[in-house]
Amino acid sequence: MKKLGIIVVASLAFMGAVVADPAVSTPTAQAKTKVSVVSKKSMSTTKYQIDQSKAKGAYAYSSNLKKKEFKLSSGHNSVFYAKSQEKIKVGKSTRVYYYIKSSTNSKLAGWVWHGYLVKPILSKSAVAKLVASGQDLNPSSTLLKQPSAFYSTYRSYLEKEFNMTGKLTHFKNHQARVWIADPNLKTYADTAMGVWNKALGRKVFVTGSSKNFDLVISSRPSKQWDGLNDGIHLYLSSTALNDKTYMDSVADTPEIRALYNQYENVAEAYKDAANGSAEKAAYLAQGHTLYDQLIAAQKAAAPSATSYWEGVTVHELGHSLGLDHTPYLTDIMYAETSNDGFSSSVNGKYSWNSPKDPNDTRRETPTLSARDVNRAKLGMELGYW
């Protein structure tokens, strides 16, 4: 049964971008620039909050931007209602402003550039209820469609609830350059990169070079793990890669697990039985039979070497996207235990020593579950890639 690892080496804080106030670029620009209302119309009442990461130093104005009504930072925690909008021409540029009014403070009212507004983030209790109502460790479409402030506010909570590691590999514009240093691994790497790119609908992993890369794929000897990712290096075990019989021992099905548990129980009973007794001889014979059955079942269920190592590489690239392990056999990010002793233990929703879906067969092909994909999408929202 394969062992896959992750070594977390860094965690970087995600910072929102600062956007300049489009109404005025200098203290005197507004007085020199012609401002006119192009159109004005009502809109269905919508709740908003100020996106403070973008609205630093910005203001709400009167119509035609003639007067500053209030500084947007003063409405930090306020909920505003917008009922009308107007299109304003400032010089040669046209912008859309919403008229907003605080639900609790009538003095906080005025016209605001729509780019400074975000829909109110959910309360902690609402988020907890949403998480609890969804599939375990699988962020719902609702959770994946929240404003940026939501992810910065609930970062720690979301990381815990969905077993996320944080930023591991460097990405620029949602893209990481991958250098395949060992040409023998090119097929595995190209397939694995393609699997994630297709699932996420964009080229997240692209081919790099020895001088231009964010992640290096190579191999090194190990009997402890099949794959390991430290954020900069993704290793496959050369020990296992060069073992022509290795595929005969990696399959993980309900039948194999049942035979393995029976064999372990008989082995313990054999140790406890009196030497020379008929009971000890019976346990020995039973153990040999179970062992032969176990080996036969593993060989029968063995994946092809190509498919298996492609799957291992998909798993390790998942760590680069910020995903930690799960206890679900049907996820490519599955691990037998939350703390295997050779890689960083999972600091997630809960610990485990056995699969949550024991009646399923382990995913050992270069494919992804919906849980794998949705967690990766959450990683993007959290700024990991």
From TrEMBL:
The source's superkingdom equals Bacteria
Q: Name one GO molecular function term.
A: metallopeptidase activity
Annotated region described as Disordered, given as residue ranges: 349-369
Asked whether the UniProt record includes Transport among its keywords, one would answer: no
Q: Which residues form a coiled coil?
A: none
Alphabetized, the UniProt keywords read: Hydrolase, Metal-binding, Metalloprotease, Protease, Signal, Zinc
Q: Does the keyword Protease apply?
A: yes
**Pfam families for the chain:** Peptidase_M10
Q: What is this protein called?
A: Matrixin family metalloprotease
Organism for this UniProt entry: Secundilactobacillus angelensis
